[in-house]
Each structure stands twice: as C-alpha cells, then as structure tokens.
Amino acid sequence: MHQRRITKAFTILESESTQIKKTIHKLQVIRIKNRKSFNNELFPGKSEWVCDRYVIEKNTIVYLASLILHELVHIDQYDRGVRNIHGRAERKAYKIQAEFLIRHGRQRDAISILKYFEKIKHSKYSDL
Ligand SMILES: [Zn+2]
C-alpha cells in the first residue's frame, strides 16, 4: 500500500517540468516508521527521508507528491553546498511546493502551507 502510493506520487512528479524531473533521482531512500503520526525528517546527505506511516497513508497523493518535491528541493540545495536547509532555503522549498499544489488544483493546501511557513519563519527560522 505504501509502495503504491509512493509510486503514484512519483508518477505525478515525473510529469512535471524538466527542472523537477532532474531532481527526482536524488531521493534514494524513503524509510517509513510504523507510527500513527505525521512526523517526518530529511537526511539530505544520505538522500534519505524518514517519515511516520500517516505521512504516506493519510495525505492525498498530490499532497504526498508535494511533500516529496519539498524534500527534493532541500536535497538539491544540499548538493549545491547549502548546509542550512532552514532560512532562505526553507522559503524556496515552500514556494515550490505551493506552486506545485496550485498547478494541481489544491489552492487550499497551498494556502495552508504558506500560512504555516509564515508562522514558523518568525520563530525557528529567524534568519528570514
Ligand atoms: Zn523544508
């Protein structure tokens, strides 16, 4: 079930622009923890994304694809030498994720992640 949902999400990403397609191979491992919650963490140096099972099971496929895209932006940033994936790097990841969601008709999701970003940028990510 996880595999099928992840494959569908990647299929959507593969139909995106060349810029996005070029980064898809950069995420090599998705490790799913058997936890009924939505926590997830990226290890860009290992090209690995670790997430709780609800991240894969409970989100829509488009939203899951947008999360993967967000992490691909960070892995790409890491490959370019960015070591602080917060701050400006985070702004870019949210922007690309929101644009993707809007392209796929998920304006409401796009607005809520941008609102979330506005909320966190003043606390944790103070260099914005
Ligand atoms: Zn991020």
Characterize the structure shown.
By secondary structure, this protein is mainly alpha-helical. It has a single domain (2-121), classed as Zincin-like (2-Layer Sandwich), CATH 3.30.2010. The chain has six helices and three strands. The protein has a three-stranded mixed beta sheet with strand order 1-3-2. Helix 4 packs antiparallel against helix 5 and helix 5 packs antiparallel against helix 6 (107-121). It is globular. The N and C termini lie far apart (39 Å). The model has no long low-confidence stretch (mean pLDDT 92). The structure holds zinc ion. Zinc ion (ZN) binds at residues 70, 74, 90, 93.
What's the alpha carbon Rg, rounded to whole Å? 14 Å
CATH topology: Zincin-like
Structural class estimated from helices and strands: mainly alpha
End-to-end C-alpha gap: 39 Å
What's the rounded overall pLDDT mean? Answer: 92
Strand order of the largest sheet: 1-3-2
In total, the number of domains comes to 1
Low-confidence stretches: none
Helices and strands, with pairings:
Elements: H1 2-14, H2 18-21, E1 29-33, E2 40-43, E3 48-52, H3 53-57, H4 61-79, H5 87-103, H6 107-121
Parallel strand pairs: 1-3
Antiparallel strand pairs: 2-3
Bound molecules: zinc ion (ZN).
